[in-house]
Amino acid sequence: MLKLILLPGMDGTGKLFEPLAEQFGTTFEIEAVHYPTDQCLSYTELEPIVRSAFPALAPFVLVAESFSAPLAVLCAARGPSNLRGLVLCTGFVSSPVCGWRRLILFRLAPIVLSRTLPDFATRWFLAGRDAPLSLLAPIQSAISSVRPKVLVHRLRTILTCDVRTELKKIGVPILCLQAKRDRLIRPSCLEEILRIKPQVIVEAIAGPHLLLQREPAQSVAAIQAFIERISIH
Question: Which of 39, 85, 207, 229 could bridge to 211 as Cys pair (CB 3.0-4.6 Å)?
Fold first, then answer.
């Protein structure tokens, strides 16, 4: 059975993948990777944690959400023989924020991430303005379970990342899921990926940054169609 390895967003807990896993049902073997909540680790330091989830022989697909996109690119660039495809959801391969905005965000990170994210901010930046309260609580709980210093480190890791060279080395098919109402990742991030890898498959879905949580059914349909396509070819 094909295995899907899910790499989480900046919270790193993997808890927010439950809606997605429910939609997949028993179609695939699914494993959500968890990152330490109390350790400030770089992408290079997180890589062994991800690679430990790779099956020895069975075919697998990496599905990476936002923060984990550069990490997934690093892992895929090493060319695991049984890797069949890569899915990047609201992903990027270099800092999604540039110029003076990046400098301001870099300095404000300890202040912004030192407190619980309020409902309006969770909706505006992550879950969408019409997100139900039933979704806000799990998101805020997942973020709050991570030490603020770790969140700050992960945000700064995002702001300084650059895996464009590694992206060029990837030989397996790639699917990019783009959230049409994403307030965090600009369309230029996808455009950059397409300049490097024009053959990347793109599926744009009407939803906010947390696309896999708000639109799990559409996300699963896109991933399943991608898997069927690469299985044929």
Answer: 207
